[in-house]
Amino acid sequence: MKTVLAQLKQYKRDTFLTMGFTTLEVIMEVLLPFITARIIDNGLEQSDMSAIIRYGILMIAMALVSLFAGAMAGKYSASASSGFACNLRESMYIRVQEYSFSNIDKFSTAGLVTRMTTDVTNIQNSLQMLIRIAVRAPLMLIFSMFMCFMINRNLSLVFLAALCFLAVVLAVIMRRTVGVFREVFDRYDDLNASVQENVTAIRVVKAYVREEHENQKFQRAAEQLYRLFVKAESMLALNNPAMMLVVYGCITAVSWFGAHYIVAGSMSTGDITSLFSYIMSVMMSLMMLSMIFVMVTMSAASIRRTAEVLNEKPELCNPEQPVMEVTDGSIDFDHVSFAYKEGTGDDALEDIDLHIRSGETIGVIGGTGCGKSSLVNLISRLYDASEGTVKVGGRDVREYDMEVLRNEVSVVLQKNVLFSGTILDNLRWGNENASEEDCREACRAACADEFIERLPDKYDTWIERGGTNVSGGQKQRLCIARALLKKPKVLILDDSTSAVDTATDARIRKAFRETIPGTTRIIIAQRVSSVEDADRILVLADGKINGFDTHEHLLKNNEIYRDIYESQTQGGGDFDHAA
Fold first, then answer.
1. Which of 227, 241, 399, 409 could be joined to 380 by an S-S link, Cβ 3.0–4.6 Å?
2. pLDDT tens across 291-315, in order?
3. pTM score
């Protein structure tokens, strides 16, 4: 709760103003029945017109003050709750941006989306209710009870008995529903995950005619969520009968005992009239408190899930005095081991001892799951090594400012991502200050200019979200051009030319040699043709170095590399089958 409420920030003033105006509104409303009793006792029964007018004007003035206070409370509560939700979403989004890959792995994409939308909306509604109704209801209850005790102490004991009964009922309901609502929001994650997966892969779904299967999968997730909500709401439904029992019980008791007091002459008509008004105020306060109880019960799970995101500490952070310059593109792995989950004994990389000179072109090849992507992720410090040291430019990557390091170590990942915007907008992710000519030059090096020039709007062509209106090969070439705009000291291509033909692949590699000769280039590929002209080729097998030499020497001395080469050059197909 403390973590979440810290996001009020600049809206604390609006929150306190809401509480202040709500308090003023309650005071005016509580005093109105008291004035009504005075009109009856001192005005109507005494036939005193001046008293009626005097108290009537006072009631009108108090009603206007109450109206003004209510309007202002509504205005400031809307501002505070909406601003709070905005801050909460921004803080969560910023925190996610700070996460390392290992942090992100703890949350599903659908789970993060649910937390920033459904959960934050629940918390926003709860805050708006709390700063108004949670202030109004207790104050109204306390003030009304005080006035009741002033009128008749014995009769007011009825309310205390009712409050004790209601407190026990609400405590039982809340204890049973909190856990159910926690499970409800976990199931929201599953539902959103099903939608996200289906929409993202809609082409595959249609290609394999799996619409019915996906519909059934979504229906199961929706029905499970439905059953949990029915279970939770069924428990909460007991709240209303309990409230009605208390309300009508109090009215009956006060009517019965009040009649006796009037007959005995110990209470006036005005007193019993105002007492009934206070009864309704007390009952309304109890009903509002039950509404708060329902909302808080629902939002408790949302607060916990939101706090999980905010409290998650980034596992990677800058040192106190970071190095702000990468001197060259040399790379050294000194007996490095790495596991995605430490302590499991399942290492993705084991005892990697590797030394790459600045400006070299290094090919990386191996079977699926051998650790190729894990290896290059350590260079740009997307993960930290479990054991050993990774160095770039002669310095441990953990000594660098991460932005400086990642600006100098440019990575084109396996999953190529383009964002909605023009081609130029996407290219300038590599360098926001790049001129159009710089972009054109990078595209020529990546062999992307040939298809861009054929587009009607050329570099101003709009790219749909996710790059759905360009082919896989075109997307890869745009991502390579984007990386080249950074003019990095190390360029990593993680299987980033798999969707282009071999001739285009060769032209891209030739352009690299001519345009960025001093940049260290690491090319992960499935095709031997993509890496055979590299200065040296790294062969990985089961997370270990199996060979590291030139193409010619590996053909002679490395069985795995030779099998891969022969399987591809003699029509054997994918090297994974040969292995």
1. 409
2. 676 677 667 777 888 888 888 887 7
3. 0.64
